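ok here's DUF4468 domain-containing protein, seq below lol
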Amino acid sequence: MKRFLFSTTLIFSLHLFTPGFAQKPGLPYNRFTGEITQTKTVQTGQSRDKTFSAIKGWITKTYPNYREVVRAEDMSSGHFIIQDREPIVSERFKSFSYRVTIDVKDGNYTCTINNVKTLSPGSATYMSADMDFSNMGMYGQDIDDTSRQISITKNKKVLAKLYKKRRVLKSFLLDYNKSHNKMCLQFNMIQNGILEAVSGVSSLAAN
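and the structure came out like this:
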């Protein structure tokens, strides 16, 4: 049985060693642009048509609303584009949307997930998540500053306001973490599901 190998050069240079990329709650992003993006290349040892058919079968099974989410499907070029959204249970975020681009070639395929946007309760417009990590850093700094103020403040009324401010800031961070954890689970489900569909087995270890 053939083993399907992730392109470790790509994955590890992207997520670990390249200065422009970092990873928090398992979610890879470009720390210069803030873009949440995950790219994996898999060596298949198969023809493009065979891999394309396997991926199409997985998409059809995974997305009952296939006609709505598939924005491009071209067997001649081995190209898929999927655009979908998932709910988030938090006070700050209602759901997130994402784009999946799959390029299939003889012997390998590349799957990229990016263009991540979030929808807040009461809003009708999805907003780019590119500022998420910048906002999280800002809130974290504000929490540290507020904690220092608390440590030196004696006035009870002022302390009450500071404690309230810190609770609000912590709730913001918690909501970001919830949304990112949900994104990470969804993105890994997609990458692993495609890998398993192409390999024809239920479980594979990536080297």
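fwiw The helical segments are 8-17, 48-62, 66-69, 132-152, 156-199. kinda neat tbh
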